[in-house]
Amino acid sequence: GQQLNQSPQSMFIQEGEDVSMNCTSSSIFNTWLWYKQEPGEGPVLLIALYKAGELTSNGRLTAQFGITRKDSFLNISASIPSDVGIYFCAGRTPGGWGKLQFGAGTQVVVTP
Amino acid sequence: DAGVIQSPRHEVTEMGQEVTLRCKPISGHNSLFWYRQTMMRGLELLIYFNNNVPIDDSGMPEDRFSAKMPNASFSTLKIQPSEPRDSAVYFCASSPRGGGTGNTIYFGEGSWLTVV
Prior knowledge:
The complex is a heterodimer of chains A (112) and B (116). Chain A is mainly beta and 112 residues long. Helix content of chain A is 0%, strand content 52%. In chain A, the strands form two sheets. In chain A, strands 2, 4, 5, 9, 10 and 11 form a six-stranded mixed sheet that branches. The relative contact order of chain A is 0.34. Chain B has strands at residues 5-7, 10-13, 19-24, 31-38, 42-50, 53-56, 65-71, 74-79, 88-95, 106-107, 111-115. In chain B, the strands form two sheets. In chain B, strands 2, 4, 5, 6, 9, 10 and 11 form a seven-stranded mixed sheet that branches. Chain B has a four-stranded antiparallel sheet with strand order 1-3-8-7, with no helix packed on it. The chains are: A mainly beta (112), B mainly beta (116).
């Protein structure tokens, strides 16, 4: 099961609004990844973060690796209908090989 | 570029039958992961391999589950005998390297298993 606390669990927003979600952990991570999963598909990598304080953008998406190394957030600006899906954070502890821990996901619903 | 390829995409089987799920990782990736996704438990890591060797199988739920990776381009996850509670989406994922910063994981589209 998940060992990350991801919030919010779901969001219902209007097209054009910004979206923000975050993940926190009791463990220090050296990698944070953000994925999006659409119905019937596998998770697709959106943004990868490797350094504390790192701020990375991918189009309208921006994610940051928290300074404490125990948290990360993802922002979506000016949401559009195709942003609908479940967004997962995932983190890896130092020395954890490739083993990722996943958050429970944030379901985003965008209404026109 | 071809991503992680899984088969079958969908399978419906009767309780007690053997189920075999297959995965072809991205070429050049040396780590492979099997995950299970359910509504109740989310994404769970079942097992992962590095250079075809199982590194951690602590997530495999019970002896009915087994996984193999006979070569760098193929892996199987087998459930024998299957039970209704095994119904889930099973994802295979691969990564360029097994450890160290910069390790990102890429998922296949999943095998949707229903055991009736």
